[in-house]
Design brief:
Largest sheet: 7 strands, mixed
Strand content: 25-35%
Number of strands: 15
Shape: globular
Radius of gyration: 20 Å
Length: 315
């Protein structure tokens, strides 16, 4: 049996080991699967969380060989973007995935860029296209956690979907000023001292922060119409685990036209992603250069906990 190189989680370890595993068998034509040679796969926060077993979608299968997506090449040389949320396994030289979970890579889109950015891009694309409804023309959006990697991508993506007023909220004012925002709010410490008065009315709130600042925001807002809030991530919980929960006063729900939703696997399924993927990949082609680090798969043991730029592994 031929073998391939892969990153594999072992019991009790907090990072994968670079090792050899059996090459997956060539799928039968009637199976609906396609075998791909993996060209690039991203080390997203989701990948680390699932591999450690701490993510709500973790499973024994998905944890064994990490990875949720990547760019691969078919046996006839076609480059495709693929998803493997359910089964994991992209941190390997070859992978078998459902053909329905692959999409042609647009001409000119760098595989490294696609592997590094589709996952964080989905975090704002899906909320705006599938978790919000009846957005007005020229809608406005407030991005909580705007200086995060996903938050930064949300700015041009929101504009590409029709937003004409984009406001960012984060702690680093210097970075906020450099992001091409229409306005910004500096997150204070304690967060309840943050001044949201300049926000005015917004149609959508994309929240990567969560925790007490959300309640302070709701209490501070003076909307003139419907507000759609979408919870995406909980950056605040990294320094304060209690920020995973909020206590929402009934007066907030009664006092404004507020819709509260979440966005993550469970609130949508892969069919939603599939419908969006072609357009999303094309949009990535129009986004400027992004800082993405590149490592060889054999470096996975030392690079697994690297912080900073987004990281993509290649064979």
């Amino acid at each position: 049996m031929s073998t391939i190189q892969a990153a594999q989680m072992t019991e009790g370890s907090n990072s994968p080991k670079f090792t050899s595993i059996p090459k997956p068998p060539q799928p039968d034509a009637s199976s609906g699967l396609v075998q791909l040679k993996v060209l690039a796969t991203g080390l997203h926060r989701l990948v680390r969380s699932r591999a450690s077993g701490k993510h709500y979608t973790s499973s024994a299968t998905a944890q064994r060989i990490p990875g949720v997506d990547g760019v691969g090449e078919t046996s006839d040389g076609q480059k495709v973007f693929f998803l493997c949320f359910k089964e994991g396994g992209s941190f390997a030289e070859y992978i078998n995935v459902p053909r329905s979970d692959t999409w042609p890579l647009p001409s000119g889109l760098d595989p490294i860029k696609a592997a590094g950015l589709v996952n964080p891009t989905l975090s704002s694309w899906i909320p705006l296209t599938a978790r919000c409804d009846n957005l007005p023309k020229d809608f406005s959006v407030l991005i909580m956690g705007a200086t995060s990697a996903s938050g930064r991508l949300a700015v041009p993506l929101a504009r590409s979907l029709g937003a004409t007023r984009v406001i960012g909220c984060a702690r680093n004012e210097e970075v906020l000023k450099s992001m091409g925002l229409d306005d910004h709010v500096v997150l204070q410490d304690p967060v309840t001292s943050t001044d949201f008065s300049r926000v005015g009315h917004v149609d959508v709130i994309l929240d990567y922060v969560y925790g007490p600042v959300v309640i302070h925001l709701f209490k501070s807002m003076k909307p003139t119409g419907r507000v759609q809030y979408v919870h995406i991530g909980s950056v605040a919980s990294y320094s304060d685990p209690s920020a995973l929960e909020i206590s929402l006063p009934g007066s907030v729900l009664r006092g404004m036209d507020l819709t509260v939703r979440g966005s993550g696997m469970g609130s949508w399924d892969l069919r939603v992603v599939g419908k969006a993927m072609d357009r999303l990949l094309q949009s990535l082609s129009n986004i400027g250069e992004a800082k993405i680090g590149v490592k060889k798969l054999e470096e996975v043991e030392t690079a697994w906990h690297q912080v900073g730029d987004r990281l993509v592994f290649v064979p």
